[in-house]
Amino acid sequence: MIVFGLAAIAMLAGVIPCGIVLCRGTLMEAVVAYETISAIIVIVLALLAQAFQRPAEFEFPVLLAVLMLGSGLVYIRALERWL
Hints:
Layout: H1 2-12, H2 15-24, H3 27-51, H4 59-78
C-alpha cells in the first residue's frame, strides 16, 4: 500500500504550480487554479485513505467532491464583478 502514499505525495507536487498561479495570475487563472487545487486535494485524500487502509476515511473525500462544485460557484459569485 506504499504505492498509494507515494502517489499522494506526487499529486501534492501539482499543488505548488497551482498555488503560484493562484497568487500571481489573473482573476480567471486564479479561479481555474482554485478548482484544480480542490480536485487534487480530493484525490489525495482518497489515496491516503486507501494507503492507510481505512475505509471509513473515504467519506470525507466523497463529501468534499460533492461540495467542491458549490464552493466554486460561491467563489465565482463573490468575484463576479471583476470577471
